[in-house]
Amino acid sequence: MHKLKNSNNMGLFIFFGFILFLISNRVDELRVYQGASIAVFVIAIASIILLTGYSGQVSLGHGALMAIGAYSATLARNELHLPIVLSFFIAVLAAAIGGALLGAAAARLSGPYLAGTTLALAVGLPSLANQFSILGGEQGLTFDVGFPPMSLGESFTQYKWYFWISGLAALISMWLLSNILRSRYGRNWRAGRSNEVAAQLSGIHTGRSKILAFTISAGIAGLAGALLSMTIGTVSPSAFPLALSFSLLTGAVLSGVTTLSGVMIGAVTLVAIPEIADVVTNHIGSSENITTNLPGFMVSTLLIIAVLFVPNGPVEAHRVRSMKKLAKKKVNALTKPSMEGNT
Amino acid sequence: MMFQLINTFLIGITAGSIYALMAMAIVLVWRSTRVINFAQAGMALLSTYFGYEAMVHMNSFWIALPVAMLGGALFAAIIELVFMRLLVKRSSSGHIASVAPIIATLGLLGVIRAVTAIIWGGQDVRIIGPVSNFGYTLGSEVLVFSPLKLLILLTVVVLVLLLTILFQKTNIGLALRASAFSPEIARLSGVKVDLVRTLGWALAGSAGAVAGMFQTVNGNGTFSPDSIEFSLLLVSGFIAAVIGGLESLVGAAIGGLLLGLVISFVLMYVSSSLFFIAPFIVLLIVLFIRPQGIIGVKADRRA
Amino acid sequence: MKAINLRKLLSVSAVLAVASLAATAVPAHAGEVGVNSSEIKLGMTLPMTGTASLGYNKIPGAAKAYFDYLNANGGVNGRKITLIVKDDRYVPTEAVAKTNELILKNRVMALLAPLGTANVKAVASSVNPGRRGVPVLFVNTGFSGFADVKKYPTTYAILPSYIMEAKIMGQYIAENFAGKKIGLLYQDDDFGSDALAGFKAAGVNFAVKVAYASGSQGAAAAAGWITKFKAAEADVVILFGVSSATSAMLGTAAVLKYAPQWMLGSVGGDATTIKLTGVPAGVLYNAIGFSPVPATTDLNDEYIKLFSDIYAEAVPGSTFDLNVLLGMNTAFMTAQALKAAGDNPTRKSLMAVLNTKGATLANSALTPLGYSGTSHVGLTGYWVGKYSPTGDLLPIGGTYTTYTTDSGTGAVVKSNYKRPAMPAKGLPK
Predict the structure, then answer these.
(1) How many CB atoms lie within 10 A of CB C82?
(2) Which chain C positions have a beta carbon within 8 Å of A23's beta carbon?
(3) Which of A104, A126, B188, C21 has CB atoms 3.0–4.6 Å from A240's, for a disulfide?
(4) In angstroms, what separates the C-alpha of B254 from chain A's closest C-alpha?
(5) Nearest C-alpha of chain B: how many angstroms from C230?
(6) Is the CATH number of domain C39-160+299-379 3.10.20.740?
(7) Which of C276, C298, C266 lies closest to C140 in space, CA to CA?
(8) Which chain A residue has the Cα nearest residue C26?
(9) Bridge-partner residues for C35, per DSSP?
(10) In a structure prediction context, what are the per-residue pLDDT tens digits for chain C, which is 429 residues long?
(11) Inter-chain contact A303–B86, Cβ cutoff 8 Å?
(12) Closest partner residue to C227 among B8, B273, B274, by Cβ?
């Protein structure tokens, strides 16, 4: 039964991948590039959803974990000349180790204390790149995954190659995540999130469970970091500002932190906002002050609206609404008011 | 050598006292409503613009400062009344109840930043301090300490004392604490919980305004949403509050001063490249020894 | 239940993806990308917001002011020049995203004056304008590597490199401050390490070197720097950092009554930007400064006169400063290169002009340009000046003395470069 569910699920992801593949052959290069960015955000946002939505911990420092992944992948590639797939594994591993350490500290803390620690990490860690010459300083290191294989044809663009790599990585990590979340670990996290004491009483080691969540989340963030540095071709401290950590959180909230299935919404929004802002300013023809500050304003406003009106995410809100409707229908059909409480 | 030591201490203590003000604002909000307000620095920024406008029209710092404080208090009160109440109503339960306020105030920070940049952006905004910022002389040397810095330090001390007295010795303080810890019981015993919460925010808005005004005059007298001084205020204020333990105003003040001093000594005697990583290390050390911060309440760290 | 839900939502997501990735129609066009019978489109990315935007956010307005003037006077062979500007917030990821939009969506002919070493490097390796054949004109960074035609075939430097500047400063110190104790403030990254390399090549020995981490340069940090310089009893203090570092340093020095002989690097040496942050002009008095272009207040200079008139009309109330001058100068050079690129300019013909005649393009700078088929070095030197009581950088003794050098081991020499006269009305001929 359980196995059947998994393979079903896998078929779904393969189908989705096939659609993405078809799309990638139909759209122009800019959209393909944006698709690659969306895939990177999907992975990064998923790592936040796992941590915040499922295990109830806050991180304002996932930008720093992405930086760990990005730098490890780059070093593995440039210094050890590892194949690209292997360097991504190194990125996951390195970030996961960082996450485990952070998680061990985090298990002792929570709420605002954890937020403060991770914020300080996001501010501090990227600046270390200037301390060690191997990390390339402010201008950073080049991260080159190489040209697409010749067998794909002359007209196959670099960005399509990036899109395929990051799209595939996104699909695989989403599949893995959705399975982890339905496993015993996922249940433990949810139990700890809703009532820590009760979870402990029922034999769940909540501290260990939280560290595990942090480790997995960090590993995924590390993968996103490596993919980010692939799409921008370099890795440098300025690519991981505090604003990145904030926008990941924004993306997670827009997606709905309690369910993985809305993750596309947040990722697409983050990539699309600057373009939408562009369209708006082109239409109303505003001053430079407004033009330059509109994207920031729109993202923040959306974030506020999301927290206020769909705190569990648009997907969850939609689900709840349709369940209620369904329940009402049943109620009407059976005229049994007791069903109401089940939603 | 001695002179260098004294100066390093003075640099740390004045920078730290402004972080302390910011940290106190964050603690006030936390204590009255159990919300970590990331928008505090944004509110301080907006209040500083209020002060700037007063400065333009009245040309006196001693008018600008109360205007900024009043403006900051009003704005914070409105935010609490309109925004935070709605937030509490909409997401006080559910899975993200613990993170919703953090996220919402982050959004608020972004909105305030963007709006101030749209209204005042590109303007040369300047506030001139009320007293001289020229350093006192000690023998032939000029100290990194001036009448202005003395004023800042004194203000912080006075504010810490006033607010501590308010919290510990008056009915308002009792109501503030009661409203945060057990709103239901407080309500039953006749405390106007909502009013008290708004008051907590207003006090914080005021304290933040002072931090913003002083941070500006303590620098070169200019500010903008994009200035480095303000991004430092945002990060350091919060870290100082966490170091201090979030529950106590005295803790926040100590946290701010400690952070200022550590950064100052690290920059002077270790390496200037450690500027950004130093707060993280301080925070880790403090939280490793005392997970509830320097003056925190142990049972509350999981709140 | 969960699985069904997931499936449904995945398909919703798929629809969303298709919608968001909906192909945009690519207009068919004859001739070069970004060029049609009435218009030439150029694109620019730079920080317009954020802590790194100080001073630089005036560059687009300046370049547009010149292009508007040019367009009002017939444009380039009858074509108007349109400049599309995008904010990259000084984040490489944003710079890549915005450059992709400029090239793939706005379909600009060339990129103009992108800013920041990390950003230009990221764009070079991700967007790869070199492989696409898109010219990247006059990058706004002193990183010497961008002159390398093998690595960056379509990128053209404009500013003299940080190494050149440090070497010239070193030469000036050897000539004027022999035996004095020299102090250096520098940024703790490649900007600073390039400077250190240049000073080393020039044989400067420092009594004290103070590094700062980019983004930490507030008043509190500056008080610490001064304490260090005082302890080392430095006679001359070189500020080789960004504007905000110079401002923090000079503002704090004023209140601490600390007044060594200041020497300001060109990156952080624009008086208007410094004064805008509240530093009193008097503090700058007698500081030594370096610039490749004439003093921005030198209205006897034909370029300065014309550019400042154009700017005053286009952006009333804004001070004509170094960033404005460099922005307009870049626009002016671009216009000439486009004009010389023929009746139907292409990316190739534009770059051919720069490779063959680039070094002779009229422009306001007082030091020679180094463009050739084998090198894309821009300006190659500086003149030395002192700041006036009002805080304006003026040549010592009233005449410009310029030095030139290279980014390698070449000597620093006094230059006798004769600047090309300005074409009539400042329009390309």
Answers:
(1) 17
(2) 17-18, 21
(3) A126
(4) 17
(5) 9
(6) no
(7) C266
(8) A28
(9) C40
(10) 444 455 555 555 555 555 554 444 344 445 789 899 899 999 999 998 877 787 888 899 999 999 999 999 999 999 999 999 999 988 999 999 999 999 999 999 999 999 988 899 999 999 999 989 999 999 988 888 888 999 999 999 999 999 999 999 999 999 999 999 999 999 888 888 889 999 999 999 999 999 988 778 888 888 889 999 998 999 999 999 888 889 889 988 988 889 999 999 998 888 888 887 888 888 899 999 999 999 998 999 999 999 999 999 998 888 898 999 999 999 999 999 999 998 899 999 999 999 999 899 999 999 999 998 899 999 999 999 999 998 889 998 888 989 999 888 888 989 888 888 899 898 987
(11) no
(12) B8
Report the alpha-carbon distance of residue C56 to residue C36 in Å, rounded. 30
Instruction: Give the distance from residue A225's alpha carbon to the nearest chain C alpha carbon, in angstroms.
Output: 11
- Give the distance, in angstroms, between the CA of residue B201 and the centroid of all CA atoms in the same chain: 12
| Strand, coil or helix: C82 | strand
A2-308 CATH pick, 3.30.70, 1.10.1740, 1.10.10, 1.10.3470: 1.10.3470
Residue type, C70: L
First-residue to last-residue Cα distance in chain B: 46
As a whole number of angstroms, the distance between CA B134 and CA A272 comes to 50
Residues of A in contact with C92 (CB under 8 A): 140, 232, 234, 236, 238-239
Looking only at the bridges linking them, the beta strands covering C80-87 and C208-212 are: unpaired
Fold match flag (C39-160+299-379 vs C162-291+385-395+398-414): yes
C302: tokens are: 């034909």
- Partners of A288 on chain C (C-beta within 8 Å) are 48, 61
Which two three-digit tokens encode residue A321? 């609404």
Q: Could you tell me if B203 and B31 are in contact, meaning their C-beta atoms sit under 8 angstroms apart? A: no
Contact B221 C221 (CB under 8 A): no
Spatial CB neighbours of B124, under 8 Å, sequence gap ≥ 6: B222, C276
Q: For chains A and B, count residue pairs whose Cβ atoms are closer than 8 Å.
A: 160
List of chain B residues whose C-beta atoms are within 8 Å of the C-beta of residue A290: 118
Separation of CA C399 from chain center = 25
CB A66 within 8 A of CB A240: yes
Q: What are phi and psi of B206, to 5 degrees?
A: -65, -50
Give me the residue spans of the domains in chain B.
24-225, 227-303
C278: left (phi over 0), alpha (psi -120 to 50) or beta: left
C107 exposure class (CB count in 10 Å sphere: 0-12, 13-18, 19+) = middle
* Neighboring chain A residues of C143 at a CB cutoff of 8 Å: 139
Q: How far is CA C57 from the centre of its chain?
A: 11
Q: Is C87 on the interface with A (CB under 8 A)?
A: yes
Q: CA of A69 to nearest chain B CA: how many angstroms apart?
A: 19
Chain B residues with beta carbon closer than 8 angstroms to that of A292: 117, 121
The set of chains that have 3 or more CB pairs under 8 A with A is B, C
| Interface subset of B 237-256, CB within 8 angstroms of A | 238-239, 241-242, 246
Half-sphere exposure of B57 (CA within 13 A, CB side): 8
CB-based contact A142 C105, cutoff 8 Å: no
Place of tokens 């180790």: A97
CB contact under 8 A, A124 and B280: yes
**B186 Cβ contact list (under 8 Å, min separation 6):** B175, B178, B179, B193, B196
Domain limits, chain C: 39-160+299-379, 162-291+385-395+398-414
Closest among C133, C88, C134 to C114, alpha carbons compared: C88
